[in-house]
């Protein structure tokens, strides 16, 4: 009878125990020194916390069961402990300094941390890999706050674009391992030149606003700090193949040696991406490779990266005119067989990191990038004089116009050195000194490779160079940053000096072609304060000043008297962050105040590009949300939202009369308090993920982007309509004897076949006093899929 009572009591008690909620808490330290900022996560549970200023951490309201805790901290060996939780439990960790450095120190000088008063988002390798099924890197970032992406070809392969807080790629500073990726002249980042880069990326930090001091052109919307392959301790081989709509293929082979003799590692990747594109003839043929090798010593790291990409893309950058959207959404203006863009870019990077002492770490890097290529296009009824070709006389008739094919070439070299010193005399105090010196040399030359009528000896050379000029740019910067933790407060100050010299072929005071030069100096201060409410939550506020030089077209489209001014941005950020057991939340407010922001004028230059002008006062203000809720053990919801107001206080539009070859006849329109173009007032994203069985996932992904104006007049007739798009992602991973992982994923984009455009443009046309305007758009694909098979050995 006694045994029966005990059994009944145990049966009644078990459900109660299973329903009970317990806590795990403890400290993270090295010997007697605590390690604030250490990361603690529950393995395979999706929960993580950060150790507070006293080194303490806590997980609350956990059901009874088995848990594995993983603790990591830069410069220390990762440690794991497994416990069976049936009561409140204390688990302390004593970390040991690594016998070799971690790769993270290479980019640490230009990155924000949890206690830094900077608005940022981190993506790790697993998050990137889940979304990397063949589309370009901007599409992998599409679910992060304030992001809008676009695709010329309509399906995310080929030429793609990204805007953050309404700022385009020329205002988003991109670095690879701390080395600038933005083109020195156009200031844009062209990920098409490095296809499948995501397969060699370990992690990405997106800083919105001015962000921390870094290398490269000024960040006027955001910074993308990308770190490529880091040390993987075990050898591996991986095959990744994707097939999808519009005959899209992605084939990737990756291999790695793991850590050899606790000293060396080698990794390599070879990729190919091909697609016909959603838009007619918008095909892409992309290839790339990535090779890296590293030496790990007790106090130093030496790493070399060599990677390259080539692209051949049929042009689709004209978009589709408004009148064709309803009848021929996949229309492409270009019909010439070789209307293509062709480019290759080779990168060489060498990094050395050394612990000079327990408190001082030094980083140095040498880099060289060689880029070359052209785009080829057919032009009809062109004036021969424009191409420096004499008129042709045929049967007594003088011919001064001809159909022709031209190539516009770019051949450039970019090289330099970056460095940083990190001094940590105390656990609550650190100093960073960093900077870079880079040089760019670019040759621009254009040639006619065929003409119906030509007055040059085509039998000797089928090519006629009609434009040939060089550009040179140097960029020096130095920055210092101090970070101090006092009680629950963290204070940082960041000061940067930047000096830019640019020599280019432009116009003199009289408007005549001549070599010109400009030297610009910038001082960019930043100050921030963070208050740690507890180990899981903080509030922060910062103010940062950024400056940005005009780009190549701004210089070449003006003369020395009309040259645009540099832009200035004062960025205020304030927010709240919390990382709880089942949810995380970030709320951020921003006010970006511009002086002399450069915006489109409405006038086109000689290659059809928009010319720009300064506007004295403009601003962006808004609120951002970034959250994740673990609703159930197998159900989670991630969401972002941005509400913003983006205004120009006064803008004057210039429209030139094409009937006047002197360029002196034009009309002007002045607008006040108008919306900045391509700046939606609302951006929302959502991802609901459900795990029906172990290692399987179903995700429903949503993106809503509010209406955008195509120019700065805020005219109702020049709008990019809002769009609401839904995707579904299915994934399953398993292991088979001899194979570490077999992963199968299916991404169905635009599952409801919504007709929408995520980019567009407009230009005014004045001829003999008659004004007309043309809108053009970039239609995106209806329902389409990408099916991927990943095999890891």
From TrEMBL:
Residues spanning the signal sequence: 1-20
Main location group: membrane
Keywords: Cell outer membrane, Ion transport, Iron, Iron transport, Membrane, Receptor, Signal, TonB box, Transmembrane, Transmembrane beta strand, Transport
Ranges where the TonB-dependent receptor plug domain occurs: 115-222
Compartment(s): Cell outer membrane
Record bears the keyword Cytoplasm: no
Record InterPro entries: Beta-barrel_TonB (IPR000531), Beta-barrel_TonB_sf (IPR036942), CarboxyPept-like_regulatory (IPR008969), Plug_dom (IPR012910), Plug_dom_sf (IPR037066), TonB-dep_rcpt-like (IPR039426)
Start and end residues of each TonB-dependent receptor-like beta-barrel domain: 304-751
Superkingdom as given in the UniProt entry: Bacteria
Membrane topology category: Multi-pass membrane protein
PANTHER family, per database record: FERRICHROME IRON RECEPTOR-RELATED, FERRICHROME OUTER MEMBRANE TRANSPORTER_PHAGE RECEPTOR
Similarity-based family: Belongs to the TonB-dependent receptor family.
Identification of the protein by name: TonB-dependent receptor
Source species taxonomy: Bacteria, Pseudomonadati, Bacteroidota, Sphingobacteriia, Sphingobacteriales
């Amino acid at each position: 009878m006694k045994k029966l009572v005990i059994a009944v009591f145990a049966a009644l008690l078990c459900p109660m125990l299973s329903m009970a909620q317990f806590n795990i808490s403890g400290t993270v330290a090295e010997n007697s020194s605590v390690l604030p900022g250490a990361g603690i996560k529950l393995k395979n549970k999706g929960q993580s916390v950060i150790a507070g200023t006293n080194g303490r951490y806590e997980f609350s309201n956990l059901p009874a069961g088995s848990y594995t805790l993983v603790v990591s901290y830069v410069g220390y060996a990762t440690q794991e402990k497994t416990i069976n939780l049936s009561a409140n439990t204390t688990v302390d960790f004593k970390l040991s300094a690594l016998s070799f450095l971690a790769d993270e120190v290479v980019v640490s000088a230009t990155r924000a941390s949890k206690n830094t008063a900077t608005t940022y988002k981190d993506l790790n390798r697993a998050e990137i890999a889940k979304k990397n099924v063949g589309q370009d890197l901007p599409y992998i970032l599409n679910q992060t706050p304030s992001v809008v992406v676009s695709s010329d070809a309509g399906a995310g392969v080929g030429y793609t674009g990204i805007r953050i807080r309404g700022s385009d790629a020329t205002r988003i500073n991109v670095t690879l391992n701390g080395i600038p990726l933005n083109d020195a002249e156009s200031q844009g980042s062209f990920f098409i030149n490095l296809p499948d880069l995501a397969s060699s990326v370990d992690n990405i930090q997106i800083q919105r606003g001015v962000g921390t001091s870094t290398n490269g052109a000024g960040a006027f919307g955001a910074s993308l700090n990308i770190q490529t392959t880091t040390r993987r301790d075990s050898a591996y081989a991986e095959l990744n193949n994707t097939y999808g709509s519009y005959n899209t293929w992605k084939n990737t082979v990756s291999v790695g040696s793991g850590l050899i003799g606790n000293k060396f590692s080698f990794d390599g990747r070879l990729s190919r991406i091909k697609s016909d594109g959603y838009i007619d003839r918008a095909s892409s043929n992309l290839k790339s490779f990535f090779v890296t090798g590293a030496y790990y010593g007790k106090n130093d790291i030496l790493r070399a990266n060599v990677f390259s990409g080539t692209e051949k893309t049929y042009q689709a950058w004209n978009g589709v005119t408004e009148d064709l959207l309803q009848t021929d959404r996949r229309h492409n203006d270009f019909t010439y067989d070789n209307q293509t863009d062709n480019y290759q870019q080779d990168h060489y990077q060498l990094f050395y990191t050394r612990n000079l002492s327990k408190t001082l770490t030094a980083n140095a890097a040498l880099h060289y990038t060689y880029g070359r290529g052209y785009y080829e296009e057919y032009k009809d009824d062109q004036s021969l004089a424009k191409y420096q070709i004499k008129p042709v006389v045929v049967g007594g008739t003088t011919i001064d116009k001809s159909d022709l094919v031209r190539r516009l070439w770019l051949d450039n070299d970019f090289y330099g050195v970056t460095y940083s010193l990190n001094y940590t005399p105390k656990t609550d105090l650190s100093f960073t000194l960093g900077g870079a010196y880079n040089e760019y040399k670019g040759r621009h030359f254009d040639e006619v490779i065929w003409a119906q009528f030509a007055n040059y000896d085509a039998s000797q050379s089928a090519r006629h160079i009609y434009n040939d000029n060089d550009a040179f740019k140097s960029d020096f910067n130095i920055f210092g940053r101090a970070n101090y933790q006092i009680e629950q407060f963290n204070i940082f100050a960041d000061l940067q000096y930047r000096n830019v010299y640019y020599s280019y072929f432009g116009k003199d005071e009289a408007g005549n072609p001549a070599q010109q030069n400009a030297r610009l100096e910038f001082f960019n201060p930043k100050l921030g304060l963070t208050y740690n409410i507890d180990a899981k939550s903080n509030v922060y506020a910062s103010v940062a000043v950024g400056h940005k030089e005009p780009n190549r077209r701004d210089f070449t489209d003006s003369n020395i008297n009309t040259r645009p001014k540099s832009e200035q941005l004062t960025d205020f950020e304030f927010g709240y962050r919390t990382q709880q057991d089942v949810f995380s939340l970030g709320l951020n407010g921003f006010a970006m105040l511009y002086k002399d922001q450069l915006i489109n004028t409405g006038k086109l230059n000689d290659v059809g590009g928009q010319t720009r002008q300064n506007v004295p006062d403009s601003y962006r203000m808004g609120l951002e949300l970034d959250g994740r809720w673990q609703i159930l053990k197998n159900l989670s919801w991630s969401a972002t939202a941005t509400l913003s107001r983006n205004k120009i206080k006064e803008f004057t539009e210039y429209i030139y009369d094409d009937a006047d070859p002197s360029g002196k006849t034009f009309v002007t329109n002045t607008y006040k308090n108008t919306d900045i173009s391509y700046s939606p007032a609302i951006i929302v994203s959502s991802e609901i993920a459900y795990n029906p069985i172990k290692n399987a996932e179903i995700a429903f992904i949503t993106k809503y982007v509010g209406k955008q104006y195509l120019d700065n007049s805020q005219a109702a007739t020049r709008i990019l309509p809002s769009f609401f798009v839904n995707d579904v992602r299915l994934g399953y991973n398993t292991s088979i004897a001899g194979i570490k992982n077999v992963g199968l994923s299916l991404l169905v984009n635009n599952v409801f076949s919504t007709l929408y455009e995520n980019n567009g443009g407009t230009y005014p046309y004045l001829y003999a006093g008659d004004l007309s305007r043309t809108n053009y758009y970039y239609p995106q694909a209806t329902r389409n899929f990408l099916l991927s098979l990943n095999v890891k050995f």
